[in-house]
Amino acid sequence: MRKKLLIESERKIRELRNAEPVFKSLEKKYVTEYEIPELENRKKVLESLRNLPNHLKTDSIDILNHSKKYDKIRKSNLEERIRNRMNVIKSQTKFDTEKYKTKTLERMLMRDEIQQSLEEERKNERLRLIQNTKHYAK
Fold it and tell me: Does 44 score more than 70 pLDDT?
């Protein structure tokens, strides 16, 4: 009797170990009954949309023409904005420095002159170095 119970319990344990968990069986059921049919329906709808006569493939030439047209429009809009800004600036630049002479303005003008002269010196130095390297190369 004891042997029978042991054998029976071992068999049940083996069955339980090999049994599929409930969540996996529910997942398989969900996939087969709901998910796959829904995906198939969506595929059919998309295929029918693709096969419509007015759903033609766009040509690369059309795309290039469109991009060129868009670039022209963008350039013209940019030029117009720049023109408008320049007009606004011109209307506001009736600023006479002699009328409103201050020490800070003088300092700013002097600093600008110094920076310009430094830039000219740097350019001259670069040109001299380039000429020297060409001369030595000969």
Answer: yes
